[in-house]
Amino acid sequence: PRQSFVMVKGAARLLPAEEPPPAEPPPAEPLPAEPPCQAPGKQEQHLHLMMQLLCPQDAIRLAVRLESARPRRVRYLLVVRPEEAGAEAETALLGVDFAHEGATHCTLGMVLPLWSDTQVFLDGDG
């Protein structure tokens, strides 16, 4: 199945299949070039590699790029759940690591199922 995402400064959000992507107004003036670590092509490549880690029935609902303590490592926090209706109870947080910006594979570093009584606190500057 085809999945559409909206990407904004290190975060991506899955768009529902029936909802078309929002139209973006043309910028009034040229935007400054983004640094290579934030290049849209790399972020899209990372999303595709992360989707390969999942079961076919699962979908990434939200992906956020995190700051890493190691300078070259790239880390993401994903919110994942099955695409079927009523599967909200099966939501999980996944931590995904890339060894460096141009890595062609990623590893799963954390799996945290979210239950109805789960409280998640993220601490830090990022």
From TrEMBL:
Region (Disordered): 1-41
One GO biological process term: negative regulation of actin filament polymerization
GO MF, one example: phosphatase activity
Biased segments, Pro residues type: 18-38
Residues covered by the Slingshot N-terminal domain: 46-126
Protein name: SSH3 phosphatase
UniProt gene name: Ssh3
